[in-house]
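Exercise 7.
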Amino acid sequence: MSRIGRKAIVIPTGVVVEIVGRSVSVRGPNGSLAWEFPEGVSASVCLDANEITVSRETDEPQARAFHGLTRALINNMVLGVVSPFEKRLEIQGVGYQATLNDGTLSLQVGFSHSVDLVVPVDVSCTLGSPTQVIVKGCDKHSVGQFAANIRAVRPPEPYKGKGIRYQGEHVRRKAGKAFGSK
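Solution. The predicted structure, written as tokens, is:
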């Protein structure tokens, strides 16, 4: 049996979880999320213990694969409505910067034009400084996907290290051309 799938999900105070059929909805202080889990897996809420348990109906490989995944995704939903997930990105390079106008993130990252990205509805984007972008939201997948979309505009290059990177990301640097003769 899945080690992750066996663990019960503790429901914090202030969070409401409803499971109807194969759909689960979670409401908390920072928002609400809904998801429909796959067939072969079932979830139930134990109100006296304030826990959610996920179990699989069969031992087929597909159901076994979805067991731990379903538990992890429901756990992320519960954690996200309590405290939002956050990704921080750093922009490095001379003249590279970001601006935020009416739900649109504009990136000046060395192209002849600025790259505009529309911020999704379930994600909030703020600027710590013109070279630091903070992406927050209660849905872990949406936060990670939007942060990856920002990074994909100009990934860090290995020679000078210019580009957009996650905070704390290590970029392996390469040596440039060696000048001189034999």
